[in-house]
Automatic annotation (TrEMBL):
<dbReference type="GO" id="GO:0140664">
    <property type="term" value="F:ATP-dependent DNA damage sensor activity"/>
</dbReference>
<dbReference type="InterPro" id="IPR036187">
    <property type="entry name" value="DNA_mismatch_repair_MutS_sf"/>
</dbReference>
<dbReference type="InterPro" id="IPR036678">
    <property type="entry name" value="MutS_con_dom_sf"/>
</dbReference>
<dbReference type="Pfam" id="PF05188">
    <property type="entry name" value="MutS_II"/>
</dbReference>
<dbReference type="InterPro" id="IPR017261">
    <property type="entry name" value="DNA_mismatch_repair_MutS/MSH"/>
</dbReference>
<keyword id="KW-0238">DNA-binding</keyword>
<dbReference type="InterPro" id="IPR007695">
    <property type="entry name" value="DNA_mismatch_repair_MutS-lik_N"/>
</dbReference>
<dbReference type="GO" id="GO:0030983">
    <property type="term" value="F:mismatched DNA binding"/>
</dbReference>
<dbReference type="Pfam" id="PF05190">
    <property type="entry name" value="MutS_IV"/>
</dbReference>
<dbReference type="GO" id="GO:0005524">
    <property type="term" value="F:ATP binding"/>
</dbReference>
<keyword id="KW-0227">DNA damage</keyword>
<dbReference type="GO" id="GO:0006298">
    <property type="term" value="P:mismatch repair"/>
</dbReference>
<dbReference type="GO" id="GO:0003684">
    <property type="term" value="F:damaged DNA binding"/>
</dbReference>
<dbReference type="InterPro" id="IPR007696">
    <property type="entry name" value="DNA_mismatch_repair_MutS_core"/>
</dbReference>
<feature type="binding site">
    <location>
        <begin position="618"/>
        <end position="625"/>
    </location>
    <ligand>
        <name>ATP</name>
    </ligand>
</feature>
<dbReference type="InterPro" id="IPR000432">
    <property type="entry name" value="DNA_mismatch_repair_MutS_C"/>
</dbReference>
<feature type="domain" description="DNA mismatch repair proteins mutS family">
    <location>
        <begin position="692"/>
        <end position="708"/>
    </location>
</feature>
Length: 890
C-alpha cells in the first residue's frame, strides 16, 4: 500500500469499503476499473483490458467506459448478478489542492434500480427483505419496488417462504441471518434472483428506520403494532436502501400490510404448470394467461394486472366489485373506446414520482407528468357522463391534481432542454430574472451582428465575419486574399492563423463576449435553481400523485379485462353458493387465442359436492390436459375478478388450486422425473383442503405398472376419504375406472374418439363414462414412427392380448391394494397415502388359499429370470396374474 501512487491509494481505500461491488472510479470523462474489477468487467463488457502504473513493479490491470454512456455498461453488469458502486469527484478539479476528493455516491444493485434502461415497463422490480425470529419459525418479509414506491409486508412461517418468493419473484433478496440461507436458496432455485449473502448488518441497527421514515402513527394505522418480525424486515429494507442510495427512498410513502389469507394460495408448481405469467419453456410472456388478458394502455396498468393475476382474491365482495366494474365497461363500447384513447396519453406516473424523489427527473419528463395529469379531468368526465355506479365510485376519489399541472404549465417550457443544467427550461413569463437574462442573451446575438456589419464597412471587406468557438470565444475572420495590401487596424490582435484565413480579436469584441457568456452562465445557473425549486414543490404533492396513479392503473386494468371479454366472448361468472363448479361450454383462454385458424372445441364441467372426483381416461393428445388446465384457469380467472371463456359459469370460492401436469426432472438437485412428480403430489396431499381444486395428470407413470397403479389408486382414495376436494384426475390406468362403482364421490369421464378403420380422430369432447383403450399405437402412427415399428407393435400387442384372461375388466383385489399401499406408506410417509378403508385390514383366508399361494411362491422361486426373454417374462407374468385373480375370486 505504501508503494502505491496517491491516486491508487485513494482507489484502494474506497474499494476496501465496497469489496462486493465493481467500483466505477471517475477519472475525467471516464469511469475506470482496476485490478480484479477490471479483469471481471472487461470479460463481461467485452472491452479492452490495459494496464496503469500504480507504483508497483507491475502495472495494475485497468479498463474503463465513457461516463456519458456508462448506463448501458452498468446495466450489463447488473444483469450478470453484480453490484456497481459509482465513485464520483466530489469537488471541482480546478479548485482542488492536490488530489481531487472522491467518494461513492450510490451503489446500484439488482433490487435498487430506477433507471428506465434497466427496467421492464410492465414488471415490478422488487427488493425483498426477510427477517427471522431465530427462536421459532416466524418470519417477517417486506418487499419494495423503489422505482414505484410500492412497499408490502406480511408475516409467514419459514416453510411458506417458497410460495411467497415464487409469487413475488423479487430480483434481489436481503436477509437477517444464516438460518434462512438454505430456505431462501431452495425457494429461489430456477428463478433469476440475486441473493445478497452479505446483508446481515443492515438488520443490526439499534434504532428503527421504519419509525424514522414513517412515524409511530403511520405504523399503528398500518396495523404493524406488535408485529416485531415484520417491522424488523422493513427496518433492514429501509437501511439497505439508505446506505446503498446514499439517501432515503422518499417516494415510499405508505406501508401495505397484507395477510396470505387475503389471496388464493398458489404454489410454484401450479404457477408454472398453468403458465400464468411466463411459459414453462422460454419464460416468455407470450403464450400465458397474462398475455391474453393484457390490453392495458399504460405501464402502470400492465404492472397492476400482473399483480392481480399473481394474487387471485378469495373475498366474494372484492371479486364481485371487480366483476361489476368490468361489466359496466363491457356493456359500454363508447366509454371503453374513449377511455382507451385517454389512457394511451398517460406516461408512467409512478416511476416519474420515483425520479422526482431521487432527484433524477429531467425537464422533458416533468412535461410528460404534466401532460399525463392533463388527461385526468377527461377520464372523470367520461365516467360521470356514463352514469355507471361502480366506475363513478372509483373516479370519485381520483384527484385531478390541477395545482400540480398549473405549476408545471406556468413554469416549464413546452419543449425544454433534456438536461436540467443546460438552460432553456424556464418560461420567461414565470421569472423576471430569467426574462432579463434571456433578453440580454438574445440582444447579445444582435450586438455581435451589429459589430460584424460595422467591421465590414470599416475595413471594406464584405466577406469579413465574426465566429465563435469554445477555445477562443468570439473572433473576426479575414481571408488571406483580403489581407494582401491590407493595413490592420490598431485594435486588432492576431489570435490564430489557418491555411486560408487569419483570426483576430478586439477589446470591444471581448467585452461583449464576456457579458454574453456571463449572461448565459447566469441564466443556466438560475434556471437550474428554479427547476430544483419546482421539482421540490411537485415532490411535496407526491402522495397525491401516487394515489392518482393507482386509480388510473385500476381503470386501465378494468378497461383491459372488459376489452378482452368483449373480443373473446367471455361471460361474467357467478359465485356459486353451493360450492359447485358448473361451467357451460368452457374454453382454454390461451389456446383458443393462439389457434384462431382452428375451431376450439368447448366442454362443459360439472363438479358438485356429491360427485367431486372426475377420473378422465383417453389417449395422449386427445385433449385431457388442455381440458383440465382450462377448468383451473377459468376458476382462477373468476377469482381474479375477470370474465371467463364460457357461455355460463358458476364458480365457488376456492382457497387453493393445485396442478400436477406434465413430466420434468430436477437433475441438479438429484431428483428424477418420478421423484419430482411424487414431491409435487406430496405438496398437494399435505396442503389441500375441501375448498381446494386439484388437477392431476398421469400420476404414477414414472415407475413400474403395478407401483404406479397402486400409487394412483391410493391417491384417489386418499383425496376421496381424507380431503374431499374437487379433483380432476387424468390417467391411462383404466383399472381406476372401477373406483366409480366403489366410491360415491367418483365419476368417470373420457375423451370422445372416432375410429375410422385403423385411424382415429380426436373429437376433443369430454363425455361421461370411462374407456378401456389407450390408442397408443394409433398416436405413435400419427407421430410418424417407422411403419415397420408400427406393424411390429401391432403383432406384439395381439400376442400379448391373447394371453389375457377373458374378463379383462376384473378389479384389483383389496389384498393387493393393501400390500401396495403399505409399501408406499413405508417408503413415502409424507404423502399420507395409506388411508384407504379397504386397504387397512385384509380378510382372513381359508387353508386352500394358503396352499395355492405357497405353490405360486415356489413356482416363482424356481424361475430362471436371467435366461428368460422379455416376451417369455411378459407371457409368464400374464399367466401368474390370471392365477392370482382366480385365487382372489376363490
Amino acid at each position: 500500500m505504501e508503494k502505491l501512487t496517491p491516486m491508487m491509494k485513494q482507489y484502494m481505500q474506497i474499494k476496501s469499503n465496497h469489496k462486493d461491488c465493481i467500483l466505477f472510479f471517475r477519472l475525467g470523462d471516464f469511469y475506470e476499473m482496476f485490478f480484479d474489477d477490471a479483469i471481471e468487467a472487461s470479460r463481461i463488457l467485452e472491452i479492452a483490458l490495459t494496464g496503469k502504473s500504480c507504483g508497483l513493479e507491475e502495472k495494475a490491470p485497468m479498463c474503463g467506459v465513457p461516463y456519458h454512456s456508462a448506463e448501458n455498461y452498468i446495466g450489463r453488469l447488473i444483469k450478470s448478478g453484480l453490484k456497481v458502486a459509482i465513485c464520483e469527484q466530489t469537488e471541482d478539479a480546478s479548485a482542488a489542492k492536490g488530489l481531487v476528493k472522491r467518494d461513492v455516491v450510490r451503489v446500484i444493485t439488482p433490487g435498487t434500480i430506477i433507471e428506465d434502461n434497466f427496467l421492464e415497463n410492465s414488471k415490478n422490480n422488487y427488493l425483498m427483505s426477510i427477517f427471522s425470529m431465530q427462536a421459532d419459525y416466524d418470519c417477517g418479509i417486506s418487499y419494495v419496488d423503489i422505482s414505484t414506491g410500492d412497499l408490502f409486508c406480511t408475516g409467514i412461517s419459514k416453510h411458506e417462504l417458497g410460495e411467497e418468493i415464487g409469487k413475488i419473484q423479487p430480483t434481489e433478496i436481503i436477509f437477517s441471518d444464516d438460518s434462512l440461507k438454505n430456505h431462501i436458496k431452495n425457494s429461489c432455485f430456477g428463478l433469476s434472483i440475486y441473493i445478497n449473502e452479505d446483508s446481515h448488518s443492515y438488520f443490526d441497527g439499534s434504532s428503527s428506520a421504519t419509525v424514522d421514515c414513517f412515524g409511530e402513527e403511520h405504523i399503528a394505522n398500518a396495523g404493524l403494532k406488535g408485529k416485531e418480525s415484520v417491522l424488523k424486515s422493513i427496518d433492514g429494507l429501509l437501511s439497505y436502501i439508505i446506505q446503498t442510495q446514499k439517501q432515503s427512498a422518499s417516494n415510499i410513502s405508505q406501508i401495505h400490510l397484507y395477510s396470505q389469507d387475503d389471496f388464493m394460495k398458489l404454489d410454484g408448481f401450479t404457477r408454472r404448470n398453468l403458465e400464468l405469467t411466463q411459459t414453462i419453456r422460454g419464460s416468455s410472456k407470450k403464450g400465458t394467461l397474462l398475455h391474453v388478458l393484457d390490453k392495458t394502455k399504460t405501464c402502470m396498468g400492465s404492472r397492476l394486472l400482473k399483480k392481480w393475476v399473481d394474487e387471485p382474491l378469495v373475498s366474494e365482495n372484492k371479486i364481485s366489485k371487480r366483476l361489476d366494474m368490468i361489466e359496466e365497461l363491457f356493456s359500454d363500447f363508447a366509454l371503453r373506446d374513449d377511455m382507451s384513447k385517454e389512457l394511451r396519453e398517460i406516461y408512467d406516473i409512478e416511476r416519474l414520482c420515483a425520479k422526482i424523489a431521487f432527484e433524477k427527473i429531467n425537464p422533458k419528463e416533468l412535461i410528460n407528468l404534466k401532460n399525463s395529469i392533463a388527461r385526468i379531468p377527461s377520464i372523470k368526465q367520461l365516467v360521470t357522463e356514463s352514469g355507471h355506479k361502480n366506475l363513478m365510485e372509483l373516479s370519485g376519489s381520483l384527484d385531478e391534481l390541477s395545482d400540480v399541472k398549473r405549476l408545471i404549465e406556468e413554469s416549464i417550457l413546452d419543449e425544454p432542454s433534456f438536461s436540467s443544467k443546460d438552460g432553456n427550461i424556464i418560461k420567461a413569463s414565470f421569472d423576471e430574472r430569467v426574462k432579463e437574462l434571456r433578453d440580454f442573451s438574445i440582444n447579445g446575438a444582435n450586438i455581435i451582428k451589429s459589430i460584424e456589419e460595422s467591421e465590414k464597412e470599416r475595413n471594406g471587406i464584405k466577406s469579413l465575419k465574426i465566429g465563435f468557438n469554445k477555445v477562443f470565444g468570439y473572433y473576426i475572420e479575414i481571408t488571406k486574399t483580403n489581407l494582401k495590401d491590407f493595413k490592420l487596424p490598431e485594435n486588432y490582435t492576431r489570435k490564430q492563423t489557418l491555411s486560408n484565413c487569419e483570426r483576430f480579436i478586439t477589446p470591444e469584441l471581448k467585452e461583449v463576449e464576456e457579458k454574453i457568456i456571463s449572461a448565459q452562465e447566469k441564466i443556466k445557473s438560475l434556471e437550474y435553481e428554479i427547476f430544483v425549486d419546482i421539482r421540490n414543490k411537485v415532490y411535496g404533492e407526491i402522495v397525491r400523485i401516487q394515489n392518482a396513479a393507482k386509480i388510473i392503473a385500476s381503470f386501465d386494468v378494468i378497461n383491459s379485462l372488459a376489452q378482452v371479454a368483449n373480443e373473446n366472448n367471455y361471460v361474467k361468472p357467478a359465485i356459486s353458493k353451493s360450492g359447485d363448479i358448473d361451467i357451460e361450454s368452457g374454453r382454454h383462454p390461451v389456446i383458443e387465442t393462439m389457434s384462431k385458424d382452428q375451431c376450439f372445441i368447448p366442454n362443459d364441467t360439472a363438479i358438485d359436492n356429491d360427485k367431486f372426483i372426475g377420473i378422465i381416461t383417453g389417449p395422449n393428445m386427445a385433449g385431457k390436459s388442455t381440458y383440465m388446465r382450462q377448468v383451473a384457469l377459468i376458476c382462477l380467472m373468476a377469482h381474479i375478478g375477470s370474465f371467463v371463456p364460457a357461455q355460463n359459469a358458476k364458480i365457488p370460492l376456492l382457497d387453493r388450486i393445485f396442478t400436477r401436469v406434465g413430466a420434468s426432472d430436477d437433475l441438479s438437485q438429484g431428483q428424477s422425473t418420478f421423484m419430482v412428480e411424487m414431491s409435487e403430489v406430496a405438496q398437494i396431499l399435505n396442503n389441500a383442503s375441501s375448498k381446494s381444486l386439484v388437477i392431476l395428470d398421469e400420476i404414477g407413470r414414472g415407475t413400474s405398472t403395478y407401483d404406479g397403479l397402486s400409487l394412483a389408486w391410493a391417491i384417489v382414495e386418499h383425496i376421496h376419504d381424507d380431503i374431499g376436494c374437487k379433483t380432476l384426475f387424468a390417467t391411462h390406468y383404466h383399472e381406476l375406472t372401477e373406483l366409480e362403482n366403489e366410491f360415491p364421490g367418483i365419476k368417470n369421464y373420457s375423451v370422445d374418439i372416432q375410429e375410422n378403420g385403423e385411424d382415429i380422430v380426436f373429437l376433443r369432447r369430454i363425455i361421461a363414462g370411462g374407456t378401456d383403450k389407450s390408442y397408443g399405437i394409433h398416436v405413435a402412427k400419427l407421430a410418424k414412427l417407422p411403419e415397420s415399428v408400427i406393424d411390429k407393435s401391432k403383432e406384439i400387442l395381439e400376442r400379448l392380448e391373447e394371453k389375457k384372461i377373458s374378463d379383462n375388466k376384473s378389479k384389483i383385489s383389496s389384498g393387493a391394494r393393501a400390500s401396495n399401499v403399505k409399501t408406499i406408506q413405508e417408503e413415502k410417509p409424507e404423502c399420507s397415502l395409506a388411508h384407504s378403508k379397504e386397504a387397512i385390514h385384509v380378510k382372513e383366508q381359508v387353508s386352500m388359499f394358503d396352499y395355492k399361494k405357497d405353490i405360486m411362491i415356489q413356482n416363482i422361486a424356481k424361475l430362471d429370470i436371467i435366461n428368460m426373454t422379455p416376451l417369455d417374462a411378459m407371457n409368464y407374468l400374464y399367466t401368474m396374474q390370471k392365477e392370482a385373480k382366480m385365487l382372489g375370486d376363490d
